[in-house]
Each structure stands twice: as C-alpha cells, then as structure tokens.
Amino acid sequence: MLIDSGAYMMAFNETIQSLLELPFIENRKVRVTDERVVEYLVVGPIAVRFTNRKALCDGFVLPGDTEPLLGAIPMEEMDVLVHPQRRQLVVNPEHPDYAALKMKQTSPIVL
Fold it and tell me: What is the DSSP annotation of the chain?
C-alpha cells in the first residue's frame, strides 16, 4: 500500500474489494491529481491496523488493479508518521504505546 500523505482517505482497487466484499456506503465525487472530478464507490467501515495502532475508516474503490493508498485521515487517527529517510511508516515516537489524537477545545455547539 502506498503511503500518501497528500491524499485524505484510504483507497484500494476493485480486486481487493472483490475479495473483502465490504458494504457499499455511497458514491462520492473527488478531485484527483490532474484536477478532474471523478466519482468512486465508497465502502466500509474498514479496520486498518499498523503495529499497535488501529483506525476505522471508509475507503474509495479505485478501478482495476490501481495501487492502494493510505491517506492522511487514517494515518492521523493511528498517530503514525512518515519517516522520510527510511521511506517507511513509523509509530509516532512521542507516543510509542498509544495513539494520541488531537482535539481542540472549542465552544460548545447547541443543536
């Protein structure tokens, strides 16, 4: 799986989807690298695991055997980083035993 910090979501191909048979959620339009707007199936939920981390997310189904992508949102939820010299995904060394999620204190929203 390609670690793509420039992508937001997780994406994998039709071949993987045919093996996993994840439930359909919706069709969603996204802007791809060349600025085209393309519609993809969204499936999920998907449990993504890396070492002692886990994230739950939805995923886009890309055509054919397109290379799967792990985007910034599941990476953020797992509190993992890209090590640029080793070109590897690593657990955040500031929180080796748990994923520390960032939350800002904001004014409450009244519904």
Answer: -EE-TT--SEEEEHHHHHHH-PPEEEEEEEE-TTS-EEEEEEEEEEEEEETTEEEEEEEEEESTTPPPEE-HHHHHHHTEEEETTTTEEEE-TTSTTS--------PPPP-
The CATH topology of domain 2-91 is Cathepsin D, subunit A; domain 1 (2.40.70)
The residues spanned by each domain of the chain are 2-91
| Phi, psi dihedral angles at 83 (to 5 degrees) | -85, 110
Kindly report whether the global pTM for this prediction surpasses the value 0.85. Answer: no
Over the stretch 9-54, which tens digit does the pLDDT of each residue have?
999 999 999 999 999 999 999 998 899 999 999 999 999 999 999 9
